[in-house]
Amino acid sequence: MQNVNYIKHLKGVFMQFSKDNRLNPTHISLYIALFQKWNNNRFLEIFYINREEMMSLSKIGSKSTYHKCIKELSHWKYLVYYPSHNPYKGSKIKMNKFGTSTGQALVHNSTNIETSSGQALVSINKHIQTNRNNKNVIKLDQPKNEKEVITFFKKENWPIIEGQKFYNHYQGIGWKVGGKTKIVNWQATAKNWMIKAEEIKENQNQKSVSQNRDNLKTTKNKNYNEPL
Q1: Considering 73, 108, 133, which residue would you say is the last residue of a domain?
Q2: Contact yes or no for 17/23 (Cβ under 8 A)
């Protein structure tokens, strides 16, 4: 069992979330589910997980989305993922620590000096003070205009019309999630929009295949005396 400060760890990792533009809400939801599982296992250095359980806790409906997110979280040093190919044995997870005894957070930032583990130690208070004093801090709560959104969607190899739909939707509700919570990072919200669109498309394709199979069914007890 590791010595983990619950509050300091969450404070550190949330600070990192706010700086990491690669993340979308699905990544964060999965991480929180994994953190809760880690907590239930009394912060063991390595613990086992069940995919169905993690998908249920994180509210992820697609297996492909789940695997994509957990692999990316591992690649981005939030955790270490040891996939299992044995259906009777779960995969293993090692959570990287983000809270230190000095109140520092582990931050992925190429401009900082890296430690031997490949991660940089940056003081939370230092970042807060820097952001307060820096008038050029880039705000990502909403795009400048529709053109900026379309450019972002084209960069992600998505159709222009999807960018227009995304912009019009959030422009109409004041750039708030569910019309209530103000968006912190519109690019992350846009990536989540893309993931949801893929899931909808996948579900529609599965439904279409299912309907086609039903249409191909015949009965052996057909009455050929009935008129066509």
Answers
A1: 133
A2: yes
Our count of domains for the chain comes to 2
Q: What is the pTM of this model?
A: 0.46
Give the residue among 43, 32, 41 at the shortest CA–CA distance from 69: 32
Structural domain for 80, as ranges:
6-133
Spans of the chain below 50 pLDDT = 101-137, 228
Q: What is the mean pLDDT of the chain?
A: 79
